[in-house]
Amino acid sequence: MPEAILDVQNVTLKFGGLTALDDVSFHINEGEILGLIGPNGAGKTTCFNAVTGVYRPTSGNILFQGASIVGLKKHAITKSGIARTFQNIRLFPTMTALENVLVGADAQHSTGMLSALFRLPKHRREEKDGHDRAMEVLRFMGIHRKADELAANLSYGDQRRLEIARAMATGPKLICLDEPAAGFNPAEKVELMNLIRKVRDQGYTVLLIEHDMRLVMGVTDRIVVLEFGRKIAEGVPAEIRDNPAVIAAYLGVDEEDAS
Amino acid sequence: MKNKLTALPKPVKVLLWVLLALFAYALPLLEPPIISTPGVDFGGVLFTVSIYCLVALGLNIVVGYAGLLDLGYVGFYAIGAYTVAILTSFHASWPLLLAIPVGVVAAMVSGVILGAPTLRVRGDYLAIVTLGFGEIIRLVAVNTEWLGDTRGIKNIAKPPGVGGEEGLFQIPHLFWGDGTVLLDTDDKTKFLFFGVLDQIPYYWMGLTAVIIVLIADILIKNSRVGRAWEATREDEDAAELMGVPTFKFKLLAFATGAFVGGLAGGLYASRQGFINPQSFLLLFSILYLASVVVGGQGNRWGVLVGATLVAYLPQRFREFDDFRVLVFGLALVVLAAVRPQGLLPPRRTVRAKKLEHDLEELEEGTGEEEAAHA
To answer: Which of A54, A72, A73, A75 to mutate to test the interface with B (most CBs of B within 10 A)?
Structure first.
C-alpha cells in the first residue's frame, strides 16, 4: 500500500488493566474518507487520541506519510499534517470565530516575540497569510459572516462547523472528525456529509467517527469497525452492512443511538 | 459612549491618547486638589502608582493572558531590585543604565528557571509553587550576609541626570489657593535631575516605562503570541492539538512577566536608594494580584485602573491609617460580589454577557440557528 497516508500497525493501548485498543491495524489511503464505527466504548475516540498523540500506544506503531509519529508531541503531530475536531466541542470560547481559526492557522507559522514586537516583515506576512486562510476556511464552512462573533455565542451547529474550520486552518493532509454530526437533525446531517465530501474534494483525507450508520454508509469509501477495542471488520460500506459480526455487535443493537 | 470613542478617526484618537499621556506627565505639577495627597509627597505617591501599574501589566501577561496563577510575582520584582542594588552599590558600583538591563535579564532567567520545571503542573499546584518561590527569594535575601541580610543594601545608584544639579530646565508647580490658581515659582521641579527630595522625575521615569511596556503589550497581544496565550488559557489540551506548543508559550509568558517585574524592581531600587527584604513580602504579591483582579484580568486598561486604585487609595486616605487594610479587604470582598469580572473586564466578556442578556430577553425560537440545538 504505497499510497497509505496513515498506517496504524498493531496498536495496543492499555490503561492499567483495561485494554482500550487491542492489536488494531488499519490504514487510510490518500484522498479517502474512512469511517471508524463501533458501539459506545468500542475505542473509537481512544484510537483518535492515539493517532493525534494524546495517548501513547502501549505497543504498535503509527506511520504518517511513511514516518512514525509515535512519541511525537501533540503540537508537532498537528504541524506535520494531522488535524482533529472533538466529540464534545472544545473551542476557545472567549475568542472570536476568526481568532479561533487563526490559532489553527498559526500552526504553520513561527512568528515569535521579537517579530511581533517590532512588526518585522515575517509577522506581517504571516498575519496576512493566516487571515486570508482563516477567512477562506470560514467561507468554505459557511460561517464567515460570524467571523467576529465570540465562539461561545455561536449556535451549536456553527460551533461544530467552526471546529472543522479550525482544524482545516492548521494546514493538514489528514482531518480526523470525531462525531461531527452529533446533535444534528437529519437535514443538517445530510448537509454536513455533503460538506465532508467537499472537504475531501479539496484534497484532504478524512478519518470520520460517526454513530449514524446511514450517514457513514453514505459518505465513506471504506469502513473500519471496532468493538471492545478490537477491529472486527473492515471493508467498503456494502460489505460492512452485510457482515454478520457487525450486525450482531452494532447494527441490530442500538440503531436508535444516533445522537 | 464607548462606541462613539472607537468610531473616531484615527488621528483624533492618537491625539486624545497623546493628550492623556501629557496630562499624566503633568499631573504632579498640577497638584489638583482632591486628587493630590495631603500629608504625603504627591510625586512619590505617583511614582508608586507607576510602579504598581508596571507590575500589574507584567502580571497581567502571566495571569490575565496566559491564565497562570502566579502568587510569587514579588520574587521577580525582588530579583530585579537586588541585582540593580548589588551592581550599583559597594559591590560593583556600575552605572544604573547598565545595571537595569542586567537586572531585567536576571529576572527573566529566573522566570525561565522557575517555569521550566513548574509549568508542567497546572492551576492550584502552580499557585503553590510560585508562592514558595516568592518566599524563598525573600528568605535568601534575609539570610545572606552578602545581600545585607535584614539590613538590606544601601547607596543604590540614582538615574543619571541631564544638565547637572539644576537639570535641563525648571518647571514651576501650580499652587491652588482659595479660588485662585497661581504658578508657584518657589516650588520648581528640575527636569531630568534625579535628587532625593523631588520625586517627580522618578515618576516621569516610571510613567515612561509604563507607556513603553503598554505599547509592547499591545503589539505582542495582537499577534500569534497573544493568540497562543489566550488559546492556552482557554483550553490547554485543545490548543496543543491545534499546533500550539503550549509549554513554550507558557514559559514565554512567565519570562515576559518576569522581565517587566524585574524592570519595576530595578526602577524601585534606584528611586529608593536602599532596599531590604521588608520591601518584598508576600503581601506585595497579593497586592499585585489584587491590582490585576480588581481591574479585570486580561484587560490592560482595567489592570492599569486596578493598580492605580490599589496603590493610590491607601495613600490618599492615610487618615484612616490602621483601618486601611481592613477597608481595602472589605472593598475587595464587595467588588468580588458586585463585579466578579473586575472593574473593567475584557471587552469580549462584556460582549458575551450582553449577548446572553439579549438572548434571555428574546427567549427562544428566534431563528433557524436555534434549530441546531435540537
So the answer is: A75
